[in-house]
Specification:
Elements lengths: L9 E6 L3 H13 L5 E6 L11 E5 L16 E6 L3 H7 L6 E5 L3 H20 L2 H54 L8 H30 L9 E3 L1 H18 L3 E6 L6 E3 L1 H18 L5 E9 L25 E8 L30 H12 L3 E7 L2 E9 L3 E2 L2 E2 L1
Parallel strand pairs: 1-2, 1-3, 3-4, 4-5, 7-9
Antiparallel strand pairs: 6-8, 9-10, 10-12, 11-12, 13-14
Length: 406
């Protein structure tokens, strides 16, 4: 059997102006250590620029492809559902590889990994093995498209159901507040305590339903945060107020040390407050009784260009830099460590594991946290430290040009 000439690396091209997609693909390729890959990103291509390798094409409506598809297996097209019919007309209904947007990290990682392996074997392996891998990749992509269709319908139903839950929860919360304010009569101490517990539980359910709704809708509609200059200290104080009772019940000691920021921070206060509540709620849940939670914040140099930018170990230039470009908050608790194999998946929507409970909280709170930070062009990650699990987030420094924050 004839074997093709070896190749040193697999060339990956991305045609897109979506920075979040670029970052996601860069992180995925950093995880695919074998075979090695190199990434090139461009906003547009003409036919002469399409060289060898694998191309991911973020299709935009009204655009025509500047070349004949040829070897369709080299191309993965990311297409919005509403543009699918137009795209099929543009490609003359060719049997192309289509991924519906928005695409999850796990699906993109699986399909890109398969495409890279298939391309590698197509250029290095025996003919029979190449054909088997190509056929498997095509089946996987077609199955993914069908599953994405199903997931879209399921998500649409879930968002409608969650939307219907929000109205009665809001009413119950309002009635609890009315009673606690003693507008309908005086309450004794026991009645107040019961109502306060009901009120907290109702607010918690309201936050969860809002998170579920935003998560389901956010996967299909890119939301731009309402950026304004805000004080991160105020957000933290409000988040601590929300979880104080939970922490007191377990006698958890919480310490805070937020260094002042010498540049203004622009973010949507309610959204970042929700991020802090989600992380603190998770920390309280898995911190043992009489444990501790430590919160620290400080200006930070964030190297955003490399794979996994923002993760531990990438901040190599921090000591050399005199101009921090972000603000970082670390929340560390005295609970048990997060299994290493779950550190990268803990913020995914359906990620969970059973290790003295579900550290990911069912994937809901941390998934919405990840979505909010992505909308703010920031980052959130988890790591195990010698002193306990730590969740960290960074908010980028922004500039105001005219009346617009960028």
């Amino acid at each position: 059997m004839a074997v093709a000439t070896d190749i040193a690396t697999v060339q990956i091209g991305l045609v897109s102006t979506d920075r979040a997609l670029t970052t996601l693909l860069r992180e995925i390729l950093a995880e695919l250590k074998d075979p090695p890959c190199t990434l090139t990103t461009v906003a547009e291509l003409d036919g002469s620029e399409v060289n060898e390798g694998i191309w991911l094409w973020d299709y935009q409506p009204g655009k025509s492809l500047p070349f004949n598809l040829g070897s369709a297996s080299r191309y993965l097209f990311l297409v919005d559902r509403q543009n699918l019919a137009e795209f099929r007309d543009v490609t003359a209904k060719a049997d192309v590889n289509i991924l519906l947007k928005p695409i999850t990290r796990s699906i993109l990682r699986t399909l890109v990994g398969m495409a890279v392996s298939a391309y590698w074997e197509r250029n290095t392996a025996a003919t029979s093995l190449r054909e088997d891998r190509d056929e498997l990749l095509q089946c996987l992509i077609r199955t993914s498209l069908r599953l994405q269709d199903y997931d879209y319908e399921r998500t649409a139903f879930l968002s409608r159901a969650v939307h219907d839950f929000r109205a009665p929860l809001t009413a119950v919360s309002g009635y609890c507040g009315l009673l606690l304010g003693e507008h309908l009569g005086e309450l004794n101490k026991t009645q107040k305590e019961v109502l306060e517990r009901m009120h907290r539980s109702t607010r918690r359910l309201s936050r969860m339903t809002s998170a579920m709704f935003n998560l389901s809708v956010g996967r299909h509609v890119r939301r731009c945060p309402r950026l304004a200059q805000n004080d991160i200290q105020d957000c933290l104080e409000q988040a601590l107020h929300e979880i104080t009772t939970y922490a007191e019940e377990k006698r958890i000691a919480i310490s805070t040390d937020l260094a002042p920021c010498d540049f203004p921070l622009f973010f949507e206060a309610g959204q970042i407050e929700q991020v802090l509540i989600n992380i603190l709620d998770n920390a309280c849940k898995f911190t043992p009784k009489a444990g501790s939670i430590q919160i620290s914040g400080y200006p930070y140099f964030w190297e955003r260009r490399g794979p996994g930018a923002g993760a531990p170990g990438v901040n190599r230039r921090q000591a050399e830099s005199t101009k921090p470009n972000s603000y970082r908050i670390d929340i560390r608790d005295s609970g048990g460590p997060i299994p290493a194999e779950h550190l990268q998946r803990i913020f995914e929507e359906y990620a969970s594991y059973d290790e003295n409970g579900d550290r990911s909280g069912g994937g809901l709170g941390l998934a919405i946290t990840h979505m909010i930070m992505a909308q703010h062009d920031g980052r959130v990650w988890a790591e195990n430290t010698p002193f306990g699990p730590q969740f960290s987030l960074v908010l980028p420094r922004r500039q105001v040009i005219g009346s617009k924050c960028v």
